[in-house]
Design a protein that fits this description.
The protein has helices at residues 4-10, 45-53, 55-58, 92-100; strands at 32-35, 38-41, 62-63, 70-71, 79-82, 85-88. With 112 residues, the protein is of the alpha+beta class. It is globular, with a radius of gyration of 14 Å.
Length: 112
């Protein structure tokens, strides 16, 4: 899996906590939540826990790794934890296909 926090630091990027723009985000693995191909950073552990309680409320659109279409996941959307990343899918058939061979569906240039 690509180390997103290391990439953010290497590029010198800085941005605010995903849920509270009054706080700067911390750019390390402990404060990063990965969903599908997106990364969400937090500066406040409470905000991160609020996000994790139901990510579908806050994450907005995600990219289905099979179809590569953007969609808004629902709490009951099919999902799968792979290599520390939670993946949401448009439907159960996509989840099953991903589960059989996740490396087939990685982003070009990314390691899972």
């Amino acid at each position: 899996m690509q180390d997103v926090p290391a990439f953010v630091v290497k590029k010198g990027l800085a941005f605010d906590d995903y849920l509270d723009a009054r706080n700067p985000a911390l750019h390390d693995a402990e404060h990063c939540v990965r969903l599908n191909w997106e990364a969400f950073f937090f500066g406040d552990p409470w905000e991160q826990q609020r996000f994790l309680a139901d990510p579908t409320v806050y994450c907005g659109l995600l990219t289905d790794p099979i179809s590569r279409r953007r969609f808004r996941p629902a709490p009951d959307s099919p999902r799968l934890l792979h290599d520390g990343v939670t993946y949401y899918f448009e439907d159960e058939a996509h989840r099953a296909l991903f589960e059989r061979d996740p490396e087939t569906f990685r982003l070009p240039g990314w390691k899972m």
